[in-house]
Amino acid sequence: VPEIIGEQKISTYASVGSKKNLTCTVTGDPIPIFQWLHDEMIIHNNTKNFVIYSTENTSVLQMRIDNEDRFGEYICRASNPLGEKEVVIELKEGDPPSAPELSVIGQDQGTVKLNIKAHEDDDVEDELRVVGFKVEYILASESWNSALSQEFKMGGPYELKNMSYNTDYIFRAAAHNAAGYGNYSGAVEYKTQTLQTAPVISSSSSVFTLSSLLFVSMLLFVLL
């Protein structure tokens, strides 16, 4: 009989105009066949608003939320000759968070340290509270199409490691909740510091210093 990996009933959020992925994972031998339903109707693959991606144990329903009719209960049914299991996913309407506040607070040995502050109302539903951030960054000479990104859990620390020295970067951040990522913050420009190296003492300087010490020692010996 197929076995569900994870919760059998799930709630998640999306907003009209966005895209949303619903995922269920079910194992079984023989490998189960997946089927998605909404309002007791079978969802067919590669239609205007739905695309289904399935592997041996996982099925993903990707949908375009073009109107409020897309909200409601979705069923992921996995079956094989030994039986079937269903995962119920309730898709609720909810907005992603607003853009956070981003600033660079310092640099240490190739690590850029950031401060990210979420903006959310005190009365926001617990299920829609910000749970993390995504930071994108580029060289000042690049476009955002070339951006690298890193995700962070709420609370930090928010640090980007292995950054180049003496380089102009541009950063931006977006907050994440159960409805997805919101808009990005304004771009923040920052130039990393030059690599600081320890002064090198030449061999001639070392010889000079040693000779000076010997001379002072001999002079003190004579005076005594």
How would you describe this structure to a colleague?
The chain has 224 residues and is mostly beta strands. 9% of the residues lie in helices and 48% in strands. The chain has one helix and 17 strands. The chain has one helix at residues 203-223; strands at residues 3-4, 9-14, 19-27, 33-38, 41-42, 50-54, 58-64, 72-80, 83-93, 101-108, 111-117, 132-139, 148-153, 158-160, 168-177, 180-184, 188-191. It has a five-stranded mixed sheet with strand order 2-9-8-4-5, with no helix packed on it. Strands 12, 13, 15, 16 and 17 form a five-stranded antiparallel sheet that branches. The model is unreliable at 203-210 and 219-223 (pLDDT under 50).
The radius of gyration is 29 Å
The secondary structure category is mainly beta
Q: Find the count of extended strands (DSSP E, 2+ residues).
A: 17
Kindly, what is the distance between the CA atoms of the first and last residues, rounded to a whole number of angstroms?
98 Å
Number of helices: 1
| Shape estimate | elongated
Percent of residues in beta strands: over 45%
Query: What level of helicity do the residues show?
Result: under 10%
* SSE order, one letter for each helix or strand: EEEEEEEEEEEEEEEEEH
What's the pLDDT, averaged over the residues?
A: 89
Write a brief structural summary.
GO terms for molecular function: axon guidance receptor activity. Keywords: Immunoglobulin domain, Membrane, Transmembrane, Transmembrane helix. The protein has 224 residues and is mainly beta.
Key phrases:
224 residues, mainly beta, 9% helix, elongated, FN3_dom, Ig_I-set, transmembrane, immunoglobulin domain
